[in-house]
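Q: What would this chain look like folded?
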Amino acid sequence: MVSEGAAVRSTRTLRAESALRTLAATSAPDRSRRVLEQALVFANAAFAGVYVPGATGEVLSLSESAGVPRTLYGVRDSYRLAGRSPAADARRTGRAVWLGPEELAKRADSRRMPAGNMSLAALPLRGPEGGVLLAVTESPVGFDSEDRACLELIAEAVACPAAAEVTHGEELPPDAFSLATDSGRVEVGDALLELFGLSRSGFDGRVETLLALTVPEDLPSLMSVVEADHMFSGERELEFRVLQPAGPPRWVRLRGRLLPGGEGRPARLVGTVADVSTLRPGVTDAARVQRLAAALATAGTVHDVSQAVVAALREPLRADRIALAELENDRLVVTALAPPEPEAWPELWRLQWRTEWPDAPVRAMPTLAAALREGRARIWPAGTGLEPALAGVGPGGLAALPLTAEGRMAGVCLIGWDAPHDFTPDERALLTAAAGLAGQALVRARAFDAEHELVGMLQRTLLPRRLPGLPGAKAVARYLPATAGLEVGGDWYDVIPLADNHAALVIGDVQGHNAGAATLMGQMRTALRAYATEGHPPDVVVSHANRLLLEMETDRFATCTYVDVDMEQGTAWCVRAGHLPPVLRHPDGRIEIVEAEGGPPLGVLDQADFPMTPLRLRPGTVIALTTDGLVESAGKDIDEGLEQFGHDLVGADPAHLGLVADALLGDARRNDDIALLLMRYDGMAVRPLRESWTVWRVPEAVRHARRFTRRTLRSWGVSDIDVPLLVVSELVTNALVHTGGQVRLDLTLVNGRLRIAVADNSPRTPVKPTGIGWEATGGRGILLVEAVSEAWGAVPVGGGKQVWCEVLIGS
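A: My prediction, written as structure tokens:
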């Protein structure tokens, strides 16, 4: 008689055979990847990869993989065929290699692998290439007989790809690219150019041109693929976003592999870039997390939290069942079931759980109890042997998300599928993020008063703890929460020191009075600060913030006023986005409500203009920025409130800004939260000396830059110029050799401190080498700059970067 476990395993093998036959009949471009993913579904593998011989025939290189990142298990990108790795052994002997935790611990490369119940399998592949299928599992029993049978079926079905090579200069397929690792020059097909919105005549062949058209948040991961220092043998896949002239960014998928060079040819990264916008949901996983965060922030009860989690996860994951339960001692108190019908759930649940599913002991489901003790998300693919109470929830796949917060277990969320479900990396990331958010929301909902205190603390944390010191000016700020109710709003202020003795004054207000508004306020404050420090002009800073808020796909909008003050010249530029204008108190006591033309609130219009209005400041001028909570009330409109605000400012003594701020808030009605920012412009006692030079790309460019530096420093009365000339030579040379486009040299002298800055159009920042051999011909420039300067660094500037250093000099 066949046991129940054996019957389940036999069924799993039959299902694997059926799935592989179906995939074999398709001609999809990702068929190999989908075949490999069956190891995760049917063989209980956490990682599976295909290794093929490289061009030299000396190594096995990773060409395709599925599952969690290989680095978590110490799996390499390549293995030497002459080595003693499991992959090499399977390739040489033609027989499968099965290693459990004890066998792995005895091998030489076990130090790369994590300790624990990890097992590894290496199976030779059929075909002329002679590749290897490598699989890893965390199952305590390793790969059992049924797992091994499924892996053998998958090894027979895997198509072992040949190491294709692209010859420099030959015509590429429409969606392909070929990147030279030594020069950064890239050849691309016509379809790829169309994805980036470029024409063949308008493309300069530089990889930096393509990188500049990607979403900034995706740039670090993309640079890890295309930079020579990070390239590796084997195939790499990455999804990123490309900016569009109008509308949200377009999702594209890069698949590529590194081909080694030889005989005078550089190594090249070759591959394809395809449009996957139609394959992805209309809302990104990041946007789903943001929406879930906003929904949970306003959820006042456990029921509200549960419904928000179900709404955020069930449809995007195409799940058939979701259950959410609180954990109280050793019992689960179910708070949401989707679908709610009892017949949709396992019979054991209906028999043992009382009316309306109030509670059940955790010990009734030992597998779930073990997951809760571990405190991390667990995923069981179709066919996993689980107790009936869990197997019936997700026969095609089950995910258990422990909901933790504040160091303790708050509950659990079960998500199940009827049909076999492949868990993608994006889904795993979404589940992990949702679990953290839901756990925190459950804790807040249990103690409603504690939630308000937590949100209030969040708002205080998001606002600046102290304002920075400014050259030639002093700023103070105040924030008062509303006294009507305990909820907080989205008012914020900020003072941002900028380069060249500029400073940005920002004040704003996010729609709403809850945790969602406070969270969005923190995001907008951070975004404006980031765009400002990149060196953008005020209108561009506000335009970028507007586009970012639109891409967040939130229903909220925000208003703000942004003032960029030049401390040296006593001038400023003001940009308004649906917010109150600045109020100036001139040194003679005269009040001016600035008639600044304004744009719409942020997050309302995609194509919006934010005009700039010039301001002239004399020493003693006070700039006052506030939110509508101070100037608007039920019996007074904004215009009347601004007039009264200016009148109160007339009699203030600008020498004591803190007292001025307290007086302005003294009689304020507290129906709304209030933010107030004051800055007194005093003027700079010592103005820096500045000169700039555009470095032309000519053979004698460095000599010209040195001559400009020598002439400038002598005109400033500086005699000790050897060190500045050395620094200029190194920084300008690096910019000319490693970047393209315009290069600018800026010199600034103040109080015996010379700042030398070189700006270029490349986002790549210089990296200090960790060691240089005596035979090296380069790499010493940054080391020399660091050795002779007081400080050095690199900052992003307008799509490129600026490398700077400061040198102490004597006149």
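Residues 214 and 242 are 4 Å apart (CA to CA).
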